[in-house]
Each structure stands twice: as structure tokens, then as C-alpha cells.
């Protein structure tokens, strides 16, 4: 894991309460759960994060995004 950067995140009261309860039960810091949530979002939208993808993955995704040629159907 790299160097940690301090940032501010705004949560709803419900999110804050649920994360704190979970942290108390599991003895895992809330910050760890926030980092895991960020990782999940980055994974979900990896198409927009080309710097993290292999060249082969980028090529495959580009081919999938190309519109089909109506003359070839």
C-alpha cells in the first residue's frame, strides 16, 4: 500500500452510523472500509481508468465499444 493521503468525505448520518457500528463489531477502522469502497467503484468503472488496465484489456474493451457496421449483418 502506498502513502496515505488525507481527504474529506461527506457521509449521510445513516452511512456514518452503519460504518462505525461495523467498525466496532469487526475492529476494522472506518477508513479501511472507505478505501475498500473506493476500490470497488474504481473496479466498476475501470473502462475510464485506462492507466490501470493492461494493453490487451484496453484493446478488447475498444473492440467491444465499436458500433457494428450495418452492412455486415
Describe the overall structure.
By secondary structure, the protein is mainly α. It has one domain. Helix content is 55%, strand content 0%. The chain contains three helices and no strands. It is elongated. It starts with 12 loop residues before the first helix and ends in an 8-residue tail after the last helix.
Estimate percent helicity. 40-55%
Gyration radius (Cα, Å) is 19 Å
Number of E-type strands: 0
Terminal CA distance reads 49 Å
Q: What do the pLDDT scores average to?
A: 81
Most strands sheet: none
Structural class: mainly alpha
User: Ranges with pLDDT <50 over ≥5 residues?
Assistant: none
Name the shape in a single word: elongated
Order of helices and strands: HHH
The number of distinct structural domains comes to 1
Strand content: under 5%
Number of distinct helices: 3
Please tag this protein with its features.
single chain, mainly alpha, 73 residues, 3 helices, 55% helix
Q: SSE layout and pairings?
A:
Elements: H1 13-26, H2 30-44, H3 55-65
Task: Describe the structure concisely for a colleague.
The protein has 73 residues and is mostly helical. It is built from three helices and no strands. It has one domain.
